[in-house]
Design a protein that fits this description.
8-stranded antiparallel sheet, Beta-galactosidase, Chain A, domain 5, 20 strands, 294 residues, mainly beta, binds 6-O-phosphono-beta-D-tagatofuranose
Length: 294
Amino acid sequence: EICKGVNGLDKVVLREVRGSSAEVYLYGGHVTSWRNDHGEELLFLSTKAIFKPPKAIRGGIPICFPQFGSHGNLDQHGFARNRFWSIDTNPPPFPTVSTNKALIDLIFKPSEEDLKTWPHSYEFRLRITLGPGGDLMLTSRIRNIDAKPLSFTFAYHTYLSVSDISEVRVEGLETLDFLDNLKAKERFTEQGDAITFESEVDKIYLATPTKIAVIDHEKKRTFVLRKDGLPDAVVWNPWEKKAKSMADFGDDDYKHMLCVEAAAVEKVITLKPGEEWKGRLELSAVPSSYRSGQ
Ligand code: TA6
């Protein structure tokens, strides 16, 4: 249902029959909460998140569009996360008919102002679905309704909630090439084991598999990210020093979050007039079957 969230901002609450839930603010089309059927919060939301436009909400799943990163004349990560979206009452038919799933369709179109800073006409539809097992699915459909080509980069800037970052492993990115944002985007190759964390990390992994696993050892929980149309994956933890420099981030927040972001960054997406791009992210949280010594 639609209700008032923090600072009176409109939010939609999705509830699934088995008890899982999700919340999405019309501001930014921003998912801020995803709870399993035990009511446990699976996304990280900063203890100091500022729910006040034009600042993006710190945590949940910010939508980075029409660009990931900070280059050119746009703000960092574009402006879709800093704008008010609306509920799409008559979305074009989705290929997969949704059965008993809780879902909401949102739409974002550029304002006159937006067209001045980024002169492209498009329709950005976002469908958020809670599946029967509590899986959270985000499907973005961006249609170029301009007479000229539309080029953009994109990310679901997902903040996962973890009990202790030093006890987290990421599987699925081993041996891949990545651009290291901490070293002027220099290209490196990841080593052969699961990724662990003991300092600031800001890496754009390239040509990643459709499935990435994030294992929270303490909670015996594995997040599985499945993605489609999003070839890259950004892994980010600001660690202690950068966390302290961010006003909307608690000093200790870095210990309880990890960003793993399904993205299209290395290769720009270009749509011809009338063409539509689709980018899907499916998140699930499953108990980790632990073998000792893992
Ligand atoms: O996702 C990694 C990153 O690009 C980092 O470099 C860091 O800037 C992070 O995004 C957060 O960006 P934001 O604009 O949300 O503060």
